[in-house]
# Entry
Amino acid sequence: MAKKATILIADKEKMLVDLLTRSLTSAETSVLGTTTAEDAARLFDIHEPDLLVIDPTIPNGFALIQSIQSHFGNPKIVGIASSDEVREQLQRMAVTITADRNAGLDSLVEAIRKSLKMDLASLGQKEGVRILVTDDEEDIRDILVEFLRGRGYVVSVASDGRDAVAHVAADRSLQIVLLDVNMPRMGGIEALREIMARDPHPNVIMMTAVADREIARQALKAGAFDYILKPFDFATIEASITACMSHSEYQKQPWWKRLTSR
# Structure
């Protein structure tokens, strides 16, 4: 049996750490994540990961890289660069693989793929993935449909929660539902509960223009995979979809295999 690759992610944004952890965890990879250099150093000592993915602008981030390089020779490191200055400093430290923070998840995954020299193509697999876009605003539906179809997804639309529930009941091949929270006839939370009550059911990513922690808590408790705020950017949407699909593939493994692959 091939040895699993271990990836350690250290970034100042917990959302990105969580997203990458869910995206990259698979039968072939084990992923650890943290938001501090101190915790990253501790995890590195314990697990000796195959790859460190680090945002060097976290407190003591550059010092962490120097320490690891001095104690472990030539470890594999992907530096997340938020500016040309950061990128140049990483290169001076012999961190040859960098990812542009502003280029989105695809760029970071590609950098990880190059560094590990392994096939992570499934993380970006889009062909045939069936998505239902649910929003009562036609302009938003049209924009999302155009973007997602351009990226290779198979997309259908619903105009409210009741329509979304009907689509899910009629099409068992749907894999992801993008579901707005505030809609007429049936709101997103109620539709989410009806969708999650079905067996099997697609994964649901909620969308809302209101940054309400209680609504987010209700959505996640009811089974939503993620919660995206409007106005959203396309990189955020696709990153959430990518994480959702990778998590689904992981969950399809037998329970005993998921336990032993950690």
In short: Residues 119-124, 250-262 have pLDDT under 50 and may be disordered. The two ends are 14 Å apart (CA to CA).
